[in-house]
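Much of our argument rests on the idea that a fold can be written as discrete symbols. In the encoding step, the backbone of a single protein was reduced to a row of integers, each denoting a local shape. We regard such an encoding as a compact summary of how the chain folds. The record that follows shows the chain in one-letter code together with its fold in token form:
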Amino acid sequence: MTEIDTSVPHSARIWNYWLGGKDNYPVDEAAGDAYTAVFPGIVTIARSSRAFLGRAIRYLVLEAGVRQFLDVGTGLPTVDNTHEVAQRHAPESRIVYVDNDPLVLAHARALLTSTPEGVTAYEDMSLFEPERILEAAARTLDPSRPTALILSGILGHVEGHDRARDLVRRLMAGLPSGSYLCVNDGSRGTDPDYEAAQDGYNETGAVPYFLRPVAEIEAYFDGLELVDPGVVSVPLWRPDPSPDGTAPRPVGQHGGLARKP
């Protein structure tokens, strides 16, 4: 297995740190702290993204009747992972996680357990090999049944919007009618401070993450039927009632959910 390099910060481990997880190293905490010193709002974005994912999965299970999930670019397990939310509402749900990071692999095998009625599997491969992903997923998921493809915070790592769109298209092409696409990613046009912080981070030599205009995030859903309210800043997508009655505030992270006709 590939060695885990603890000498340079890693985006999945930094994200884990921001979400309050423990699967990170001092170099990741230092990078995360340096980022939050420039832009404290990144922690809100990380947690808003995770909350959006939870609401989207809840919709898929309870309203769309989906029982199969393909989560590509899983990242490190934290709280309310895809299988936990899905199986909480439908214990028979089957989930395939895909990532190619050795630290994610090590933790996924230990932590991504399943209900007795369902299945949780892990495939060690890259987003850049969509046909292999679909072939591997078919070992766990029924290719004839609707599946929800989850791409949470991963497409920003793809350099070139056309390439990212092509990867989405190829993955969705292998899923049957009635399947869903769930995407959320960092966006431009909402928070200039976030954009400045992320552009600065990309210039440090770390693995870059590209924020994209909302129109480019919307384009991932071309040919699909968007679920209301469409592609919006993630706190605004079907928000749960706030305990204190305050309205959710937009952040520089947009997402949506759409059905394949």
Notes: The first strand starts at residue 68 and ends at 72. The chain has a mean pLDDT of 92. The chain has nine helices and nine strands.
